[in-house]
Design a protein that fits this description.
The complex is a heterodimer of chains A (about 220) and B (about 475).
Chain A (H helix, E strand, L loop, with lengths): L1 E11 L4 E12 L4 E5 L6 H8 L7 E6 L2 E2 L5 H11 E4 L11 H11 L4 H14 L4 H4 L8 H13 L5 E5 L7 H17 L3 E6 L2 H6 L2 E6 L2 E2 L2
Parallel strand pairs in A: 3-8, 3-9, 6-7, 7-8
Antiparallel strand pairs in A: 1-2, 1-4, 4-5, 9-10
Helix pairs in contact in A: 3-4, 3-6, 4-6, 6-7
Chain B lengths: L2 H9 L3 H38 L3 E6 L12 E2 H8 L4 E14 L16 E4 L19 E5 L2 E5 L6 E6 L14 E5 L10 E5 H6 L7 E4 L2 E10 L3 H4 L2 E4 H8 L4 E2 L1 E6 L5 H12 L3 E5 L1 H43 L1 H9 L4 H43 L8 H11 L1 H22 L7 H28 L3 H5 L2
Parallel strand pairs in B: 3-4, 7-12, 9-11
Antiparallel strand pairs in B: 1-14, 1-15, 2-13, 3-7, 3-14, 5-6, 8-11, 9-12, 10-11
Helix pairs in contact in B: 1-10, 2-8, 2-10, 2-13, 8-10, 8-12, 8-13, 10-13, 11-12
Classes of the chains: A alpha/beta (about 220), B alpha+beta (about 475).
């Protein structure tokens, strides 16, 4: 489903060039829960940005469902991010003045889904990730960290994406809540047949994944 | 929830800040509205004054002062030629004559001393105020005429007769307006022996409407009694000009013309055209300078209003511009997230533009309410501060009336000019700012333009934000 071929990303400064991601290649199948591990500055988040088409690679190709991302126009990239990708961020990045339900409805609004349909689906997704009806109308500020991350996962699932990219999804959570979130992601990868790639520096989480890629200085070493 | 609803909701995301912005912006909008209203009111008033005050050209015989001097009389053909000129709205033809009471001594001065324009009448002039401290000599009495002390022989005061082709303007008798207290106006185009008497003259002679008197040896019917508000006019007779021309034997002849131009701006062109037509035989004067003096305070208000309006609009645009830039900078991460989850740049820009519109339109509504409340008080302040500049403390109209007794032409001029200044000054006091729907629509339109302009730069920032920045800030 996801095929990364000789992917590189360089950042040029005044004095030199930093190879954030260097000649990385790997493949991940449908419904697989994978992790990318590595130390801080190893290029994990940069790789995730490239996979999510948030940034352009310096060289190499990313193929999703046999489509080459690097050849897509801006409009196609917007559509790709909207329809094929779901993002889960370490800081949740929910819109603070919208309720949990409204946050989950936003990606469906961008996709042109009818209001009644998106409301029903958002409610179901929130229930699926464990946000009960009484909390669905709450704004993020009135939810715990774990609950906010659950809302973020529901938002990532809104448009039934093929790929969910999670950047340190448990980074701001205690270990018990973190385990619950990882279990939820693993469960969803199977039930929704969605490929999940989670960036983490937690070896324990990586050990439970279907596959793990280890980055060091921008290079894949495992 | 759509992009518009989200924009509306975002506008009140930070209540304290939103209210502060709305309050400050409302002050700017109300200021702009007040200034726009003042500008409109003053501009209309200036145009009104230009087309109604000071747009008068007086054509008199060259060298004529009152009943003295001057060459050949003008005639109906001259009046018709002037009436057909460009920018001429109206031509008032005037023929002056004076009557003395049958059996009394004529005053014996003036260009008409030996002409048919000097004749006798059965009427007697109203008595003038006699000074209490007289010399005791009947042949050398002291009189006070309109406040001026004069000494003269024991003469009978002459009665002025004015022949007019138009009753809409009684400035020939130093009156800006008049009312018919009894009877009716005559048709100014007729040549019948008919006249209107000033109320003092009618009272002195115990004559009422439909009564008669004798002049030029003929019986004249009184169609009505008028009150023009001044002693000179109320002691006079008004006749159709053709009647006076027939009675006096001065067929087709005219003493002077009062030409009304369509605007003060047309005065020089009309004046030159009249001079070209009538040559050196006439003095052609206008009241442009007087009216310019009257308009001057209004021009000051107009200038202040215009620059204040521009300043208010610029201030409003800067306020909303800075607010939107601040909001966009604060929400960089949110914008990045929205892009990451599939929003287009246009969708996000629309959301921020709606937010900007909500702030400005809310401010405009408050500003309009404030503008309605404060436009007239502010206009009064502007008037009071501008009024102190050019003032004429003397009453030119009264002076004109006084002069009218002895030097009718000069008196008429002074009265007309003075009346114009007085009218302009009164119109300044009566200036009212009216906020109509057009002004409100202008205000809302300006708010929309300010909102779009204010969000234009922030939109540029939005386009530049790359979603990858969100990831790197983790």
């Amino acid at each position: 489903m996801l095929k990364v071929i000789n992917l590189s990303k360089d950042f040029k400064t005044e004095d030199n060039t930093i190879n954030a991601v260097s000649n990385v290649s790997f493949e991940v199948g449908d419904g697989v829960f994978s992790t990318i591990i590595g130390k801080s500055g190893s290029g994990k988040s940069t790789l995730l940005s490239l996979l999510g088409a948030l940034d352009n690679p310096s060289s190499g190709n990313i193929m999703v469902d046999d489509q080459e991302i690097s050849k897509m126009s801006d409009q196609q990239l917007i559509k790709y991010r909207r329809d094929k990708i779901g993002f889960v961020f370490q800081n949740y990045n929910l819109i603070p003045n919208l309720s949990a339900l409204e946050n989950v409805m936003i990606p469906m609004e961008f996709a042109g889904v009818k209001l009644s349909t998106r409301k029903d689906r958002a409610s179901k997704l929130l229930s699926q990730v464990g946000i009960t009806n009484d909390k669905q109308e709450r704004k993020p500020g009135r939810l715990s960290g774990g609950e906010q991350q659950r809302v973020a996962i529901a938002r990532a699932l809104a448009n039934k994406p093929k790929l969910i990219l999670a950047d340190e999804p448990t980074g701001n959570l205690d270990s018990a809540t973190g385990k619950i979130i990882i279990d939820l992601l693993k469960k969803l990868s199977k039930s929704e047949n969605t490929t999940i790639i989670a960036v983490t520096h937690d070896e324990g989480i990586a050990a439970t994944a279907d596959s793990t890629f280890k980055l060091k200085d921008g290079k894949l070493i495992k | 929830m759509g992009v518009v609803q989200r924009g509306v909701k975002n506008a009140f995301r930070n209540g304290v800040r939103s209210l502060s912005v709305i309050f400050i912006l409302a002050i700017s909008v109300s200021m702009a509205l007040v200034m726009l209203t003042a500008l409109k009111a003053v501009s209309e008033k200036i145009n009104n004054i230009k087309s109604s005050v000071g747009n008068i050209i007086t054509v008199t015989l060259a060298g004529m002062r009152g009943f003295e001097g001057g060459g050949t009389l003008l005639n109906n053909e001259d009046a018709d030629a002037i009436k057909s000129m460009d920018h001429v709205r109206n031509v008032l033809a005037i023929l002056n004559a004076r009557l003395t009471t049958i059996g009394t001594e004529s005053p014996g001065f003036g260009r008409n001393e030996n002409s048919n324009l000097n004749a006798q009448t059965s009427l007697s002039a109203p008595p003038i105020q006699q000074k209490s401290e007289t010399s005791g000599s009947t042949s050398n009495r002291h009189f006070v005429i309109n406040g001026q002390e004069v000494t003269g022989r024991n003469f009978s005061m002459p009665i002025t007769v004015v022949g007019l082709n138009n009753l809409s303007n009684l400035s020939a008798l130093n009156a800006s307006s008049y009312s018919v207290s009894s009877g009716v106006e005559f048709d100014p185009a007729t040549n019948e022996n008919i006249a209107m008497l000033g109320k003092d003259l009618a009272s002195q002679n115990n004559i009422f409407a439909d009564g008669t008197f004798t002049a030029y040896g003929q019986t004249i019917t009184v169609s009505g009694i008028f009150d023009a508000g001044n002693v000179f006019a109320n002691a006079s007779i008004v006749m159709p000009i053709k009647t006076l021309q027939n009675l006096s034997g001065e067929a087709e002849q005219i003493n002077s013309l009062i030409v009304t131009a369509d605007s003060i701006d047309s005065l020089p062109a009309v004046q030159n055209a009249i001079k070209d037509k009538l040559g050196e035989n006439v003095d052609v004067t206008n009241s442009e300078q007087s009216s310019q003096n009257a308009i001057s305070p209004l021009e000051n208000i107009k200038t202040i209003s215009f620059y204040s309006l521009i300043g208010s609009l610029v201030a409003g645009a800067i306020i909303i511009f800075l607010t939107m830039v601040m909001i966009v900078r604060e929400r960089r991460r949110e914008i990045g997230v929205l892009k990451a989850i599939g929003s287009s740049n246009i969708g996000i820009m629309t959301m921020f533009t709606v937010e900007s519109l909500v702030l400005t339109i809310t401010s405009s509504i408050l500003g309009i309410v404030a503008g309605v409340l404060f436009s007239n008080p502010v206009l009064k302040i502007l008037i009071s501060s501008s009024e102190s500049a050019p003032t004429n403390n003397f009453s030119a109209e009264k002076l004109g009336q006084g002069m009218g007794r002895f030097g009718q032409g000069a008196g008429q001029m002074m009265a007309r000019f003075g009346g114009g200044i007085e009218n302009a000054r009164n119109s300044l006091q009566n200036l009212h700012a009216i906020i109509g729907w057009d002004i409100i629509l202008y205000g809302l339109g300006a708010a929309v333009i300010i909102a779009i302009a204010g969000s234009a730069v922030s939109s540029f920032v939005i386009v530049k934000i790359r979603p990858a920045e969100v990831m790197r800030q983790e």
